[in-house]
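Annex B. Sample input.
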Amino acid sequence: MNANTYTERISKYTQLLEAEKSKSTRIGSLRLLAAFVTAVSVYYYFSYDSIYSSILILLGLFVFFALIKRHSALKKQILLYQELILINEREINALNRALSSFPTGIEYVETEHPYTHDLDIFGPHSLFQHINRTCTAIGKNKLASFFKEQKQQDILIHQEAVKELSEKIDWRQLFTAKGQLTQDDKGSIQDIRNWVSTASYFQTRKLYKKLGYILPAVLYLFAAAYLITNQNIYYQAAIVLFFVNFGVFGLVLKHIKKDYEQLSDSSKKLFMYSQLIADIEQEKFHSEKLKSYQQKLFLSNTKAQKALAELSGILFRIESMNYGLPAVLSNGLFLYNIHSIYALEEWKQRYGSGLEEWLNVISELDALNSLANFAYNNPAFIYPIPSISDQLIAEEMGHPLIPADQRVCNSIAFTDHKFVILTGSNMSGKSTFLRTLGLNLILAKMGAPVCAAQFIFYPFEVFLSMRINDSLQNNESFFFAELKRLKLLIDQLSSSQKTFIMLDEILRGTNSNDKYEGTVGLVKKLIAQKATGIIATHDLSVTQLTKEYSDYLSNKCFEVEIRAEDLYFDYKLKPGVCEKMSASFLMKKLDII
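Annex B, continued. Sample output.
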């Protein structure tokens, strides 16, 4: 269904694109005609001194520049339609599991994080790559922070915002397209933040501002006097003042460059931010969170969009006059850079305090836009129900990244029995089930929809131990690295944080007796801490703990069947303990033993 929607949108924007290209071609032809008429009029003016020629010159120039402006607007619209077509093409590819167009988020990988590394939150084919549709560097960072840290009180508010945005496909795609038309990076926005937080040098030095008006004014007076009287002394005085102006500019150049270097090439990025903010300001939202964003975009009755567009304009004028002959002439004649630096510092004084809030609004909307797109692409997913009691109930829960026609769904509840011992043979689906549970719990805490028929959850902190790496750099063995991981878990539980725990075959680096003693000891410790979660193990003797702690522990398993000398896995979760193991069977079948 959604693939059809994206195909229809590609067709729609392709038609609009072709129409704009046709307009652009016509405007280009008319511009050439206007230039030709103007050139012919100039010829006739100088040849025949005709007043009609002078009128045609003025008219031709007016039309020519008006057409340039119109052509520029058409070019921007063409680029926007091209980006919208790309957005919809990428979504069709994403529905077909082709994700190469989207960043992997590999830079956010933290091997020591309580769950992101074990759950493959970041990296190739990760949850982040499936969801991320951000168009700004700050939005991408914000989305990554959603995955790493979720605020419990924001869940329902986030859900409401995601639901509303998911239905606004036109608004969402326009927002993304405008952001993607300008290359954004983390460093550029940090430079702007640094500039806002830096003390203003010129605000306490008003002399330079006065000189910026007085010296050019005197130069113009001398120039006017020379034009009127034709006396050379006025011409010489004007030339001297030109160099005086340039000398004053040279005195403060070091301080001007300090600000300019921080804001180098920022005008396009700020203009893009101002456009995104305009989209946020002008849209009619209903959810509490989205309306609160709009309220944050006003500072002293000034719209954030207007303020950022103003800063972008100042920087654009600086960038266009900052090199070579234009820089020499503009400062010698007008002390242009002194006026510009005061305009920058006055902007900082008026609006600087609101910049961080405005950027945060952009980043949050950008991140929520990705979650909304994920919800739109998965209409069968449901919004989970937060619970005030420490429980987790999942009915017909599936892995959110596995296609529906390949997905096997299971149900599990952590209510009366808070902890599950999970057994199963190799390849039976234990690790996939742990990741299924973990990924859906993370999505639920973010306010996103989950892959389940019903999902009721307490917003636990999440901790996994599934993927342990030894470290030659730190001279750590696999076993010691795993012990450090488990110590992090105990420390987290000791801090009174309600944590949902998922452990996969712990203590693999020791002998079977030692492993059994350690596993049993850890499970008892977790029971004493009233922990909730699941531990997967091949050691069937560990399942005997359910007899001692029948009110807290339960056994679940994934079974395997041998059919006609072959293994059959149904990947369905069942009560009890796994009775069949596959390792020796497979080794015999492959003539290993």
